[in-house]
Each structure stands twice: as C-alpha cells, then as structure tokens.
C-alpha cells in the first residue's frame, strides 16, 4: 500500500508512527543482566511503553543448557518509569515475576489521595534499580550499527532482521569474551 498521496498515514507493516519528533519507530527490548537482548517488539513511535511490556516479555526464549523447553520467564524485571501500570504489575504478580519499577510522580500523588496496594521502593529496590543501565547499554551496542540507529529499512520485518543479526553478534561476542 503506497502512501505517496497522504504522508500522514503509514501502512502497518512499516511500524512507523507519528510522535513529537515526527515519524519514528520504537524498539521495546528486554535484556539479561549481561546486556544481551532477550526479546523485542518494534512499534511505531506513537505507541507507549506501558502497553508493550507484556508483548516484550512474551517474546523471551532462552534455551536451556541440557534438554527441556526454553526458559520464558525472568526472575525479576527492572523497568523505568515508562512501564508502571496496575495491569503490568498484576500480570507480573500472576506469573511470579518480581518487579523493580519506580512509580511516576502522578501515580504517587494519586496513591496519597486514594490509598491502595503499597508499592515498596525502599533502599533494596533502589540498589537493584541501579542495574537497569544494562538495558541502556544494550540499546547503545545495537545502535552502533548505522542501519539500526537510522532506521534505513522501510519494512519493519527487515529492520527487525537487522536487529536480530546485531543481537546474535552481541551474544556471540559476549560468550567468546567470557569463555574460560
């Protein structure tokens, strides 16, 4: 489907959406503790992070060393202030996944007016949250590839293929460096 007549409409297979900065793409990503990509979802720039958390976590498939199904559930999720919502916290709780997600200021103000379930973000959680920079470093490693940083591919599937290739190379390089 061509959009040369209406530049405001993009076909769904392009994964491009209008945000404050113009037409953009958003990469939602889960990484392990060593900065290796585990799962990802590509959407238009107008899609918010909160709605994509479950889709990203559902994309995780880590093979086991021996026989058995791949591991699909992390022990803990560290996420930034773009991901807190009642639905996400309930989804994580139902699956037994611990969460370290700080609340936004507006949510804290709402909680003070209407007390509900307390969200503990004490000293231990703050120490854990310092490890979230690993995800940002993973993004930086992926975006060292010019084609990924610029989004030069028109179709989302081609863009995802480039990200998968870069992710595979990150996994290989990380394993080679840490092999005894």
UniProtKB/TrEMBL annotation:
Residues 14-170 form the Transposase IS4-like domain. It comes from the Bacteria. GO terms for molecular function: DNA binding; transposase activity. InterPro entries: Transposase_11. GO terms for biological process: DNA transposition. It holds the Pfam family DDE_Tnp_1. Residues 1-22 are annotated as: Disordered. Residues 1-16 have a biased composition (Basic and acidic residues). Coiled coil: none annotated. This is Mobile element protein.
């Amino acid at each position: 489907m061509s959009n040369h007549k209406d530049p405001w409409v993009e076909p769904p297979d392009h994964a491009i959406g209008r945000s404050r900065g113009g037409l953009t793409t958003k990469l939602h990503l889960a990484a392990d503790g060593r900065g290796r990509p585990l799962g990802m979802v590509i959407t238009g720039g107008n899609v918010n992070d909160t709605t994509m958390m479950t889709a990203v976590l559902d994309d995780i498939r880590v093979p086991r060393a021996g026989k058995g199904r791949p591991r699909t559930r992390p022990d803990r999720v560290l996420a930034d202030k773009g991901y807190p919502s009642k639905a996400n916290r309930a989804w994580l709780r139902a699956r037994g996944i611990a969460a370290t997600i700080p609340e936004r200021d507006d949510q804290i103000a709402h909680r003070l007016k209407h007390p509900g379930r307390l969200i503990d973000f004490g000293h231990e959680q703050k120490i854990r949250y310092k490890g979230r920079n690993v995800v940002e470093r993973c993004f930086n490693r992926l975006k060292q590839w010019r084609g990924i940083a610029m989004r030069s591919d028109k179709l989302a599937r081609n863009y995802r293929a480039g990200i998968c290739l870069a992710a595979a190379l990150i996994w290989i390089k990380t394993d080679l460096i840490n092999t005894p």
